């Protein structure tokens, strides 16, 4: 039996939007991850004071916070795809999607606020 794509796979416009946003956030993650590698190499062997000093610089800390937010967003979209593929019951699907969104938002907010706290308050 062939599955009906409209009933089984959801809204095609949302799927296209998710596909595009996943690729866009993935490309931006590559750019920002190169920045992260630079920071890690720069801080290799340094103490906590040097790490806080470097992340306290707005030219380093703010892009690092942006990276954290984009990674959390990318994680949410990727996990949504996994949930849509492997969770078949509608009620469970909605619950896991909501929990996924909450988790990604919580991780993103904690990370970004922590980094911005270092940037603006040391």
TrEMBL record:
Cofactor: heme
GO MF term (any one): metal ion binding
Membrane-traversing stretches: 20-45, 51-74, 95-120
Family annotation (InterPro entries): SQR/QFR_C/D, Succ_DH_anchor, SuccDH_FuR_B_TM-su
Keywords of the record: Electron transport, Heme, Iron, Membrane, Metal-binding, Transmembrane, Transmembrane helix, Transport, Tricarboxylic acid cycle
Pfam families: Sdh_cyt
Pathway: Carbohydrate metabolism; tricarboxylic acid cycle
Gene Ontology terms: cellular component: membrane
Subcellular location: Membrane
Gene Ontology terms describing biological process: tricarboxylic acid cycle
Topology versus the membrane: Multi-pass membrane protein
Subunit structure: Part of an enzyme complex containing four subunits: a flavoprotein, an iron-sulfur protein, plus two membrane-anchoring proteins, SdhC and SdhD.
Function: Membrane-anchoring subunit of succinate dehydrogenase (SDH).
Annotated protein name in UniProt: Succinate dehydrogenase hydrophobic membrane anchor subunit
Organism of origin: Devosia geojensis
